[in-house]
Amino acid sequence: MTAVLGDDLAAEVTHGEEHHGGLPEGAPLTIGVVDRIRAVSSRFGPDPTSVSAAAARLVPVSGTAVVVEVAEADGWYPEDGDRHFNGYLVDVRRTES
Asked: What InterPro entries would the database entry show (predicted)?
């Protein structure tokens, strides 16, 4: 995450959420209000830690992130030149649990 967002912005992130794997057993319910949504896009390039250029997966390139405030998160954000959508940063104020 730090490689994409940079040290300062990554330090603001306290929790992560991923829909693809479902919720783990016993995951707590969190109720809150969304205060801000930001879309994150960056350039992608071959993984520099890969042992083979042919097998290298594409990863976000450090220092290329663009963060834009958006009104809603629908799972999609338009490409910005050679930058591709990474995901959202969402500020949530917990109201109860």
From this structure: DUF6578
Q: For residues 50 and 40, what is the distance between their CA atoms, to the nearest angstrom?
A: 24
What spatial distance separates the first Cα and last Cα of the chain, rounded to whole Å?
27
DSSP tag of 86: E
Q: Could you write out the DSSP letters of every residue in 44-80?
A: EEE-TT-S-TTTPPEEEPTT--EEEEES---S----B
**What would the pLDDT profile of 25-54 be if each residue is shown by its tens digit?**
887 778 899 999 999 999 998 888 877 767
* Inside any domain, residue 42: yes
Count the domains in the chain: 1
Domain that holds residue 46: 2-13+33-96
